[in-house]
Predict the 3D structure of the following.
Amino acid sequence: MKPKLSVTLCGINLDNPTVLASGIIGNTGELLKRAGDEGAGAVTTKSISLEPWDGHPSPNVVELEKGLLNAMGLPNPGAENFVEEINIAKQGDAPVIASIVESTIQGYADVISILESSEPHMYELNASCPNVKGGQDISRSPELAGKLVEKACGVTNAPISFKISPDAGKLADVARAVDESGASAITAVNTLPAKAIDSKANLPVLYNKIGGLSGDLLHPIALRCVSEISDAVEIPIIGTGGVSTGQHAAEMISSGARAVGIGTAVWHHGVGVFKKVSNELSSIMEKKGFESVEDIEHGI
């Protein structure tokens, strides 16, 4: 009998533990719907702000041999314009997670209030983007992180996941603060601040100079962060960072994740990566005699 891949995340049923991470093909409802139809267990929108954001000028992406460096600056059409995109995305096969970003704690709450009419299954608070001014301040402060979650929980009954930075410092303290303030989950981790230099010009490649590092290079760091957070709190973790194979997913789950976010692998390999990861994970489980994803937590 084939192993059971379905998982429950904050009371939401996922056909498998793969989640489209925020920032990759999540800018329209049709693309989100397609990711779900192609095998993602859940899909996350691009981060949504109150008003439209233009993002950073080009060059804003650097392709690396083992990853990606981006400084997109979170371009999005704004909350009012994204309501219908979420409605479209919900017509697909996968639950929809709305990613929220703003420059103030009140701003996050205002965005959620607008999106409530579309009833996303879950919200993700992006308080740790490395290429937006002030984006990491909240993620680095247990006090501010707790206040943000408390404010967000006050305007919705939907589950809230707090997206944490890999260089937040006191990861366990931040995790405990958001847990105690009402977060239903933690997304770990966001991209890592990094820089690329043009060797000929001897200048930064990115217009913004600093970008967010993702992909294979981030994977071992993400595993460490997931383990540390898992030791600190009992709320579920969406383990994100360098997942492109079933083995990567198994490593995330054995480190304490309930589900696994996939982003850069979609950039490199397309939406077929969700079925690929799920099939490979199923094969690993079958070889080891695991009947469900929960069994992976006991070792791979």
Remarks:
- The mean pLDDT is 95.
- The longest strand covers residues 96-100.
